Amino acid sequence: MTDTAVLKVRDLKIGATIYPPGEKPHEIEIVHGISFDLEPGKVLGLIGESGAGKSTIGLASMAYGRGGVEITGGEVWVNGRDILQSRHSDIRKLRGGEVTYVSQSAAASFNPARTIMEQVVEAAVEQGKFSRRDAEGRARELFAKLGLPDPDNIGARYPHQVSGGQLQRCMTALALCPEPDLVVFDEPTTALDVTTQIDVLMAIKEAIRDTGVAALYITHDLAVVAQVSDDIMVLRHGDTVEYGPVDQIINTPQEEYTQALVSVRSIDHEEKAPTEEPVLSVRNITARYKGTKFDVLHNVNVDLYPGQTLAVVGESGSGKSTLARVITGLLPPREGEIHFAGRTLTPDFNARSREDLRELQMIYQMADVAMNPRQTVGTIIGRPLEFYFGLRGAKKRQRIIELLDEIELGESFMDRYPAELSGGQKQRVCIARALAAKPKMIICDEVTSALDPLVADGILKLLLNLQKIEDVAYLFITHDLATVRAIADNIAVMYKGKVQRYGQKSQVLSPPFDDYTDLLLSSVPEMKIGWLEEVIAHRKMESAGN
Amino acid sequence: MNPIVKLLAQRIALSLLLLLMISVVIFVGTMILPGDVAQSILGQSATPEALANLRAELGLNDPPVARYFQWLFGALQGDLGTALTSGQDITSAIGSRLSNTLFLAFWAALIAVPLAIFLGLLAVRYKDRWPDKLISAVTLASISIPEFLIGYVLMYLIAVKLRWFPSVAMINDSMNLWQKLNSIALPVAVLTLVVLAHMMRMTRAAILNVMQSAYIETAELKGLSTFNVIWRHAFPNSIAPIVNVVMLNLAYLVVGVVVIEVVFVYPGMGQYLVDHVSKRDVPVVQACGLIFAAVYIGLNMIADIVSILSNPRLRHPK
Fold first, then answer.
1. Who among B223, B237, B312 is closest to A96 (CB)?
2. What is the pLDDT of residues A318-347, one digit of tens each?
3. Are residues A92 and A239 in the same domain?
4. Are B223 and A127 a contacting pair at CB < 8 A?
5. Which residues form the ABC transporter domain (chain A) (predicted)?
6. ipTM above 0.95, yes or no
7. What does the pLDDT look like over B210-241, one tens digit per residue?
């Protein structure tokens, strides 16, 4: 044990009250005795899937428990004081002064009613570290250092007036403004587009280096944490799996779980050649939202072949979800036509036949909100069986069980409620509900984005497997290129409402690239130390989110 | 055009339209009441000729639509007609009554609104602890007890037993402000108790709703004191619902104080209205109805405008 450590955690135990459906609320332990040291100027990456306890540990370094979370045991030493023994007023001085926090969603973490500057300098002024004037000067320096445009005036803006990537930089400025000794970064780039992510990541990395602050960097993405950390701690279910220097974790992982994380995306999918007749042809689609004056889709043309997958890939605002809305008839296009299974679809879904509705199903990103929380899994899957096929009683039950077997859950899930399922299981139920209609095609809108990598991997494997059995085509909307590689036969790269690049997977993902596709492909973090600097040095084009 | 200007213009236009519709409702409503004004003025023993003469004189034989527009244009020019029973000009009679009512409402609001918001903030600060429970219990009790009862109890304790303030809230133009305030102290106290609970509970609920937001956690992690977190970060984002309930209660202070005015014999609009309803003095009832409606709609319009202005996205477009 060294005495220079900024943060010293010993045998940290954290509990939470849970409210399982149908049972009495009770206490469980979610972090079981974690220990680590953090020296000044060093970065420790905390990595794990959701539920691993990484955010909880990060917040514990500020003696903070989110919701019903409570620190139940152990020691947390900050600058030589055990903060778990400190008085409330001392903890308040610690928060925002010695230790600061950068959250995942800057958009939600900035108060919409106050200017950025007011919020950036608030902690520094409140804690008596700087006068208001000095704090504002420091904030402007930080804005410039973090690469924000117009650093002298951006502080006067309100949070909704800047982009997501910019706001995340502002949040970093907020954390660095009081000259803290430790910053807790909690998934600071997860909500950003992939091309924006590397700019913000670079800005954070340089800011950490220049200010000499120590940092806890929390993320689920091992490739990201490999770029910024000195040490990495791999967590699972509240236990340490592996803890060591970044080089050792990335290149010679000892534990099986770490190895799985390092080599995730094990799917190897051979692309299929286009068959003669596409099941879906999008022809010359141009669309805009009601009440706006600009098109969000410009002359889009893509084809989807039976039993194949077309991946529509792009960043937020590229028009990929709008395309799904046009195909499903939620947003009738201004121009163009959609041919589906040999007929032309009516633009508005209200006028479509039940057959059209049945053959075109959808799976959503947020499985939680796509299901009625008061219906059992059986009812949810049974509904399309009743609605489209008039199945009742034993026949319906029989079919539900078949579907549950197909999604690898089994009959025992029939009477469960969505709240009793994990994220991956919920998404499986949504897949079964879509399949129940026996569709020719399913639109999958970011279906794995909200899931942990290993769980997402399982869902992708299931989807590929089901495609073979049911001969269903997928229109797969995603921002994640690794997912595209795993599942696509054809790819459409979208940028600012246009199809930038389109063709078979091998073609689209092989050089020569256009500038945007190149930017997009090169921005996907690689599990390689020093990758970040390399890619920044070789960039041809600025990312859109800045 | 700036979207906020457009929104505000829409809001104001809508309010005026609503007021026009209400004026129709008031007019039609008073028309379909049973009974005949001429009959009630002249009494049961009136001769048919006298009744016919009076009807012609009052314009009761004109078609209703013509009478409505006559009334409406008169009202727009500040002429609310003449009271049937006294022959007095309604506008001048209402004028002094209305200013008395507004005087009472103003002082009640001046105490009740800041107090309610402060208690609401306090209840959030000590959520689920004894101050919160005490505030909730007391304000709930005060809203649950009929206001006339509170009025009489206060009158008995403070005016009769302690002799601090007069029991009858008479005011007139010869009194100075201090004398007037002394006179209305008791009705102001009762009104404050009556409207406090609504506003305090809405403030509490609106702020607690905002307290779930991620930016509240950010503020807590800056080491701000709980009260600063509430005041600087939660309150500015819960203004819209709070203002709405405040305005509803202000409207109540103006149009709903009939009982209190009667209890304290206060010379305000409420008493005036009650007197003339019992005498079936239709023009006075119509005039009071119109003024009450205008107050209600006007205050709610202000609430809408404040809600719109409190939204930073509208105030500072991209």
1. B223
2. 888 889 999 999 989 999 999 998 888 888
3. yes
4. yes
5. 7-262, 280-521
6. no
7. 888 889 999 999 989 888 999 899 999 998 88
